[in-house]
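Sample log: Alpha-1,3-glucosyltransferase.
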Amino acid sequence: MYGDYEAQRHWMEITYNLPIHEWYENTTDNRLQYWGLDYPPLTAYHSWLCGAVASRINPSWVSLHLSRGFESYHHKLFMRYTVLAVDVLVYFTAAVVFSRLVYRNKDAMWERISLLGLLLLTPALIIIDHGHFQYNCASLGLTFWAIIAVTTDHNVTGSVLFALALNYKQMELYHAVPFFCYLLGKSVAGSGSGGEFLKRVGLLGVAVGGTFVACWFPFLGSWDQTLQVVHRLFPFARGLYEDKVANVWCSLSVLVKLRRLFSLSTLVKVTAVSTVTALVPSSWNLYETPPLSDSSWPWLTPPSSSSCSRTKSTRSRFSWHSSPAPSSPLTTLTSSPGSSYWQSSPCTLSSPRTDWFWHAAP
């Protein structure tokens, strides 16, 4: 079965060679048991683009069926460059702009450089993206751009950017709650009447809905086709957790075998309630905090709650992967870069699969 290096390569193979309606379907040419595509459409489109480039360089890298398990020095180098390209275009640019927003004073050059260095050198992101080829830099970069947009009063643009992040990786759903609460609180605080409030919220809803329709349009041909994509994105049948991940349920299983005591449907409900409960305090605080106040750090409000919400939810959710996603927002929350490093480092150690880095690196 190989590893996730092969999964990313295989997605390029499938998306480049098969018609779009087969990408999430189990067919003779696309056996979903063999690293089937299980990320949203924007990831699939990105895989297609990478596959098209790979085919131009060396067709054997993405040859249908024949390329399965393919691995070479030059292909590893290509995979590394695809991650670097997304890093530079999406994540690095957002990190540079964010650092300049946080430290606008010319006398704070060292603090700005330190924050930027931490954002670019987050251990979990480097190991998982550059050895695991998960392209978390894409969804996190889009989320950062969304934070920058909404905290500079470009709410519609921010909503579109965050919708794109959601359509790249479904794990961004855990950032969605603080985003929703922040924009809702901002709409309430900035509206002089009920009509103006509805107009603001309606505009944001149209922006998000339009972005989703654009991303999902090829998969909206039939109800069954749409449900198949949703089923692939949320594979509850895998169980409460897969293998070993850094969450509450995996840790608790040492003492109590929940998967033996309760049915799958019961566990889904329990994790849903516990996740929502964990999200409520920070999200409510974000809604109640006046986002239009004269705070000297208004742009830190969304990432602070985002980091808090994401850290809580990844520990109590149905979980199939460890995730570095809380670490980047966490890095933005302190004026002491050293302490931020020590806060984000556990995100690196929480993944039991860091050895993949050594396998995949050319």
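Observation: The CA atoms of residues 131 and 254 lie 29 Å apart.
Observation: The two ends are 20 Å apart (CA to CA).
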